[in-house]
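[User] I have long wanted to understand how a fold can be written as tokens. Those tokens are not coordinates but codes from a learned vocabulary of shapes. Could you go through the record with me and say what the backbone is doing? Thank you; the sequence and its tokens follow:
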Amino acid sequence: MKRIALALALMAAGMPAALAGTNFPPLADYPGPNCGTAEKPADVPPFKNGDDVAAYTRRIKQHNEQVVQYNKTLHDHTACMNDYVANAQADMDAIRDKVNKAVAAAQSP
């Protein structure tokens, strides 16, 4: 039994990971995150002598509102990505647990 395990380990070490198959076909196309994106608002050009002060103030106010929306979207995106990573980690842990149980069962007399 130990010889077979050693032979399999040596064969696996010599194979590139890309040649490995899957025991879980949906894993072949594991879903990526679906978290949207946050688009950073463009900077407001600096005030120049002769510019309309009221119009510039409106542009600054609009820009500040865009920044608030950007920050909210970025916060939501970060939370979504954290959930995605935590879920992926849980998937890997579940797979690792099943593999460890299968190995333990195969090694027991």
Summary: Residues 25-107 form one domain. The chain has one domain: 25-107. DSSP finds two helices and no strands in the chain.
